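haha ok so turns out i had the wrong file open the whole time. this is the CORRECT one, sorry everyone. sequence first:
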Amino acid sequence: MKETPTHKKAFEAWYLNPKRNCSSIAKQLQISTTSVYKWCKHFKWKERALKRDEKEKAKTDEKVSESIADMNVRHLKLYRGLTAKGVEHLKKARIVKDRDAITALDSGIKGERVIRGEPTERVDARVEGGISFEFKIARDKKKKKKEEKE
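then structure:
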């Protein structure tokens, strides 16, 4: 059996139906339920739907990745600006506001490292037998505050 425009229309209605139910499509298109079930099996609607879903997911994932990359570029520029302001302030050597400069530098450097996927802290741990491992830990101020309170 060759797929006709009627078959394609039934597939599209079935595909867009959240439940993908053959009997509801048969009622909607005023076609016998038996015919819709046969078409579903013969034209492999489930496999086609799965392939289409995977393609749509891949497109969505690509758009999300691009959006995140764009966001990271914007944030990186902001962090670099913070770092530059901190350096500029330290060059002027105003004693009253050095803490603000150091805070700006710290925020800029840490933010840039996070965006680039680098850790903001490193911890060295030694295991029996003299083997050394380096664990990368992202700074979490809330967690640190909790530990200090305990």
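Residues 51-149 form one domain.
again sry for the mixup
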